[in-house]
Amino acid sequence: MTNLVLFGPPGAGKGTQADILKEKYQLVHISTGDVFRYNIKNQTELGLTAKSFIDKGQLVPDEVTINMLNAEVDKNPEAKGFIFDGFPRTENQADALANSLKGKGTEVKAMIALEVEDEVLVKRLLERGKTSGRKDDADEAVIRNRITVYYEETAILKEYYKKQDKYYGVDGVGSVEEITERISNVIDKL
């Protein structure tokens, strides 16, 4: 199985690339945000548990998040692999994901991080904000904070996957096709 952890700061193009890669390699794209929204909207047991923490302004415990993602993986037993988007965020989550996949006889093959300079990200997000309707894409201070938080959160995971020789930084600047080609060069060598 080809299991990928796709990372990149806000505006790096993760969503665009995940959509292309899932088709090209017949992978299932699991976006943590989408999984949360689905479970909360449909009032699943896990969704209600997650909502109880979110409503109090607390982080959802790793165990709940892992259980949601496991349910998504289990829904797709014939999958050739998965793209994990927005997860893991901590070393504990990375360990839990590794253990979960190991139990299914597979593993994370690579963490692919789209690397884009901050100024390019800010410009992209401000541009996206003109049409996305997302408030967090319209305010430069908020955008810069999101980028800072991303680097603070993921620095640990970069080291975590580097120690396992599974970290691949990919230049996220250029046309969509050029970036897809760079990512594909990594995947094709796994």
From TrEMBL:
<feature type="binding site">
    <location>
        <position position="93"/>
    </location>
    <ligand>
        <name>AMP</name>
    </ligand>
</feature>
<feature type="binding site">
    <location>
        <position position="32"/>
    </location>
    <ligand>
        <name>AMP</name>
    </ligand>
</feature>
<feature type="binding site">
    <location>
        <position position="134"/>
    </location>
    <ligand>
        <name>AMP</name>
    </ligand>
</feature>
<feature type="binding site">
    <location>
        <position position="128"/>
    </location>
    <ligand>
        <name>ATP</name>
    </ligand>
</feature>
<feature type="binding site">
    <location>
        <position position="174"/>
    </location>
    <ligand>
        <name>ATP</name>
    </ligand>
</feature>
<feature type="binding site">
    <location>
        <begin position="11"/>
        <end position="16"/>
    </location>
    <ligand>
        <name>ATP</name>
    </ligand>
</feature>
<dbReference type="InterPro" id="IPR033690">
    <property type="entry name" value="Adenylat_kinase_CS"/>
</dbReference>
<dbReference type="GO" id="GO:0005524">
    <property type="term" value="F:ATP binding"/>
</dbReference>
<keyword id="KW-0067">ATP-binding</keyword>
<comment type="subunit">
    <text>Monomer.</text>
</comment>
<feature type="region of interest" description="NMP">
    <location>
        <begin position="31"/>
        <end position="60"/>
    </location>
</feature>
<feature type="binding site">
    <location>
        <position position="37"/>
    </location>
    <ligand>
        <name>AMP</name>
    </ligand>
</feature>
<dbReference type="InterPro" id="IPR027417">
    <property type="entry name" value="P-loop_NTPase"/>
</dbReference>
<keyword id="KW-0418">Kinase</keyword>
<feature type="binding site">
    <location>
        <position position="146"/>
    </location>
    <ligand>
        <name>AMP</name>
    </ligand>
</feature>
<protein>
    <recommendedName>
        <fullName>Adenylate kinase</fullName>
        <ecNumber>2.7.4.3</ecNumber>
    </recommendedName>
</protein>
<dbReference type="GO" id="GO:0004017">
    <property type="term" value="F:AMP kinase activity"/>
</dbReference>
<dbReference type="GO" id="GO:0044209">
    <property type="term" value="P:AMP salvage"/>
</dbReference>
<keyword id="KW-0963">Cytoplasm</keyword>
<feature type="binding site">
    <location>
        <begin position="58"/>
        <end position="60"/>
    </location>
    <ligand>
        <name>AMP</name>
    </ligand>
</feature>
<comment type="similarity">
    <text>Belongs to the adenylate kinase family.</text>
</comment>
<feature type="binding site">
    <location>
        <begin position="86"/>
        <end position="89"/>
    </location>
    <ligand>
        <name>AMP</name>
    </ligand>
</feature>
<comment type="function">
    <text>Catalyzes the reversible transfer of the terminal phosphate group between ATP and AMP. Plays an important role in cellular energy homeostasis and in adenine nucleotide metabolism.</text>
</comment>
<dbReference type="Pfam" id="PF00406">
    <property type="entry name" value="ADK"/>
</dbReference>
<keyword id="KW-0547">Nucleotide-binding</keyword>
<comment type="pathway">
    <text>Purine metabolism; AMP biosynthesis via salvage pathway; AMP from ADP: step 1/1.</text>
</comment>
<dbReference type="InterPro" id="IPR000850">
    <property type="entry name" value="Adenylat/UMP-CMP_kin"/>
</dbReference>
<dbReference type="GO" id="GO:0005737">
    <property type="term" value="C:cytoplasm"/>
</dbReference>
<keyword id="KW-0808">Transferase</keyword>
<keyword id="KW-0545">Nucleotide biosynthesis</keyword>
